[in-house]
Amino acid sequence: MSVNEDAEQECEPQKKKPPSEDEKRKKKIVPGSLMKALMRPGGGDSGPSDGDQVIYHCTIRTLDGVLVESTRSDYGGKGTPIRHVLGKSKILLGLLEGIPTMLKGEVAMFKMKPQLHYGEDDCPISAPDGFPKDDELHFEIELIDFFKAKVVTDDLGIVKKVVREGKGWESPREPYEVKAWISAKTVIGKLIMSHTEGEPYFFTFGKSEVPKGLELGIGTMVREEKAVIYVTRQYLTESPLMPVIEDYDEIHFEVELIHFIQVRDMLGDGRLIKRRIRDGKGEFPMDCPLHDSLLRVHYKGAILNEEKRVFYDTRVDNDGQPLEFCSGEGLVPEGFEMCVRLMLPGEIALVTCPPDYAYDKFPRPLNVPEGAHIQWEIELIAFEMPKDWTGLDFQSIMNEAEKIRNTGNRLFKEGKYELAKAKYEKVLREFNHVNPQDDEEGKVFVDTRNLLHLNVAACYLKLGECKKSIETCNKVLEANPANVKGLYRRGMAYMAAGDFEEARDDFKMMMKVDKSTESDATAALLKLKQKEQEVEKKARKQFKGLFDKKPGEIAEVKADEDGDQMTGESQKEGEVHGDSDGTNSEDSDEAAPNARPMGWFSLFWPAGRRLFSSLGLQRCAIL
Fold first, then answer.
1. Mean pLDDT of the chain
2. Are 494 and 469 in contact (CB under 8 A)?
3. Distance (Å, rounded) from C-alpha 58 to C-alpha 207?
4. Would you say 258 and 179 are in contact if contact means Cβ atoms under 8 Å apart?
5. 3-state SS, one letter per residue, for 601-612
6. What are 42-70's pLDDT values in tens digits?
7. Averaged over 14-39, what is the pLDDT?
8. Which residue, 140, 215, 145, 150, is CA-closest to 176?
9. 8 Å CB contact between 612 and 618
């Protein structure tokens, strides 16, 4: 930009903010309509301005000295001073103009024409009944105090005065746990309640454990801040802090915010709770660890009982070295990892964890009893983001894929099928951006991708999601219908779903395309026959007598003692594919019927059509 352009820009008129309503009202003041007489000087160098809360007494008289009204108890008032926020509160025009000219402690007399008080056109305040709004009046004002105010609610029912600035930027919010010194006084300074000795008052934000107005005011404070919170009647709710609220129009709460910690209910049922006891660095949740991050933590584990016996401390039992682990690999208890994944570097959290998210489903230390509730104190020192595959050559990508696939295989063998599936799917997502450069790379890539799809199918099968297992196998078989492992895996999924004919077709196709798989296919067909016999036996028992009735009668169908769900016999745990040759056997732990229903019979048995065929009943009419 040239010098001339700079000069032209500086000469351009600045856009003015539109005048406020108070500024528009002040323009209506004519000379001589407002007069001020100093009765007692105040102190300080300046008066109040917009944004300040002013506290003052007001006594109104006629020009011949007749008392009209007063806030002072000496003149029949309640003794409660008026509290306004300049620029926010609705206030008489004469006071809007006159109070900013006063100093703290000053007493002044303002002589006002009617148009400066309730006689103003469109006055924002209604005159009290019987008020002489058409008369010229004297307003005696004592400015008790003024200060910069934090307006908490738009109706000015909650206003905060900062007595001492605090530290940091964060304020408590639901469901933080808060510690604070608290006392309460009336507007004339009478002490109502004091909790300023012993231990600070402890409460959980959002649980109505303090009056609503006090809680909203504390929600604007930071650590170690000291403030007075002015709360009017509509925000004075009963609470454990003040079980009974008397007939107060307003209460002034003096608060010193000692400490607060973030509390997060990880499961939503109050069993797995994370309490942040030291802030971390960064912005939540953008700077929290991602899946597959390498984390470094110090932690201390204790049994959550009266003694809170410590069973492990990295600073003591690990030669002072932090624990290192990759998230998403099942190397720490589930509750531990869930909480660490929501921490920032440098943060310290206190975690209380139920047994099923601690060591009941994870290798339990020798000194931790079965069913123990655990408390961990965790410090997230740092973490490293997962490796970016962008720019890696083909061999490096395949090496990274193999590492993650091996981790998935380990998790599968440990019975952590969801975690294993996540590992396989991570590699498949990365493979969407891989472009093999020649036929040899292409074959390795396709073979590895097929293995990953079939391993995902194995996870779905273990999780009882037979339909998804079949769909995943189809991704392999659509490209190569003769893929033996794909046929085997899909056949097992069909069998678990009760689709016996489809399963039989896949196992027979295995033998047809690869004679070396005959033993595996024969074993699968034998298993299939056993499953069919179980279904037939159960069906005959369940529908016994159904077709022995005369025409016009309908037999009552009774379930046997085991209910109406088919359960397969227990089998040895299967394995995911580990290498490119051979076919590992895989049996489902439970059969999950998912057959296509046909007519009314589907209400009684999911595989009704095939069952009728096995019983020799091709067509039946029940009258």
1. 85
2. no
3. 40
4. yes
5. HHHCCCCHHHHH
6. 999 999 999 999 999 999 999 999 999 99
7. 88
8. 215
9. yes
10 Å CB burial of residue 310 (0-12, 13-18, 19+) is middle
Strands (E), 222-336: 226-232, 250-265, 273-278, 294-303, 310-313, 323-326
- Burial grade of 15 (CB within 10 A; 0-12, 13-18, 19 or more): exposed
Pick the closest to residue 82 from 62, 102, 99 (CA basis): 99
Mean pLDDT of 273-299: 89
Alpha helices in 27-157 (DSSP H): 93-98
Q: How many residues does the chain have?
A: 623
CA distance 447 to 444: 5
Q: Which amino acid is at 172?
A: P
Backbone angles phi, psi at 133, to 5 degrees: -70, -10
- Closest to 590 (Cα-Cα) out of 574, 603, 607: 574
Determine whether 108 is exposed, middle or buried from the number of CB atoms within 10 Å of its CB (0-12, 13-18, 19+): buried
- Strands (DSSP E) contained in 32-76 are 34-40, 52-62, 67-70
Segment holding 179, helix H or strand E: strand 177-185
Q: Token pair for residue 346?
A: 């440098």
Note the pLDDT of residue 419: 84
Give the chain's largest Cα–Cα span: 121
What is the token pair recorded at 215?
A: 């809680």
pLDDT value, residue 13: 54
Instruction: Say which amino acid occupies 518.
Output: E
DSSP assignments along 480-495, one per residue: -TT-HHHHHHHHHHHH
155-171 pLDDT, tens digit per residue, is 999 999 999 999 888 89
Look up tokens 């008790």; give the residue: 144
Residue found by looking up tokens 């148009």 in the block: 115
Dihedral over Cα of 157, 163, 169, 174: its sign:
negative
Look up the pTM and report it: 0.56
Q: Which amino acid is at 288?
A: C
